[in-house]
TrEMBL record:
Listed Pfam families: PspA_IM30 (PF04012)
Coiled coil location: 129-186
Keywords: Coiled coil
Domain of life: Bacteria
Region annotation (Disordered) ranges: 200-224
Organism: Paenibacillus macquariensis
Family statement drawn from the similarity comment of this UniProt entry: Belongs to the PspA/Vipp/IM30 family.
Composition bias type Basic and acidic residues, residue spans: 214-224
Taxonomic classification: Bacteria, Bacillati, Bacillota, Bacilli, Bacillales
Matching InterPro entries: PspA_VIPP1
Protein name: Phage shock protein A (PspA) family protein
Length: 224
């Protein structure tokens, strides 16, 4: 399954919470960044294959749906011409295709879910990278401010503005985090339910061939 096997771990990771508990935040930031870069490389390498699987599953499903519509059309024309035996054969073949369609729908749903998971992982990794970079910048600035304070202390001076400077830095990090979260939310797309709706409509066609034949005959009578 490749990188998809790490989906839960990647999505559940909380970079800020882990860094807050770290004894050496600077080292941990470097370690996490290397891991995220590795994960991103794997996501990019496997995405093409996952998307190809999704497209292939959709193409086969669409072909099956087209065959169902074609057989249904043939059956209707046979009923209109008075050949009920031929119409029944078309409907029986259609019933087999409907069963096949149900299996293909399951395969397509799985492939589509994998493609969505790849997209969500990529967005999460990008978000985590942004948080790490923001924490790295904040950490370096905080260390620099601390060193400046220590130098002044060694000379008997003080850095009265250090508190406000650090507060401003923290506000900058919080703003960067909020912007990253907002960007991820904007990138998230609602699931397209069109295929599900089509599947539900076509499942309603999964009737007994004899019953369908009777229904077609009734429709033709109503038209007369």
């Amino acid at each position: 399954m490749g990188i998809l096997s790490r989906f839960k771990d990647i999505m559940a990771s909380n970079i800020n919470a882990l860094l807050d508990k770290a004894e050496d935040p600077e080292k941990m930031i470097d370690d996490y960044m290397r891991q995220l870069n590795s994960d991103m490389s794997k996501v990019k390498a496997e995405t093409a294959s996952v998307l190809a699987d999704e497209q292939r599953a959709k193409r086969v499903l669409d072909e099956c749906r087209a065959e169902i519509r074609k057989l249904l059309n043939y059956a209707e024309k046979a009923v209109e011409s008075g050949d009920e035996e031929k119409a029944l054969k078309f409907l029986e073949r259609k019933a087999i295709q409907v069963e096949k369609q149900n299996q293909l729908q399951v395969a397509y749903d799985a492939a589509s879910a994998n493609a969505l998971s790849m997209k969500r992982m990529q967005e999460k990794i990008v978000l985590d990278m942004g948080q790490l970079e923001a924490r790295r910048v904040h950490l370096k600035e905080k260390i620099a401010a601390t060193k400046a304070q220590q130098q002044l202390n060694s000379r008997g001076g003080s850095l009265g503005a250090s508190g406000s400077v650090l507060d401003a830095m923290e506000e900058k990090v919080n703003q960067a985090y909020n912007e990253a979260v907002a960007l991820a939310e904007l990138r998230a797309e609602p699931k397209d339910d069109l295929d599900d709706l089509i599947a539900q409509l076509e499942k309603s066609m999964n009737a007994n061939p004899e019953d369908e034949l009777d229904a077609m005959k009734d429709q033709i009578k109503n038209k007369e």
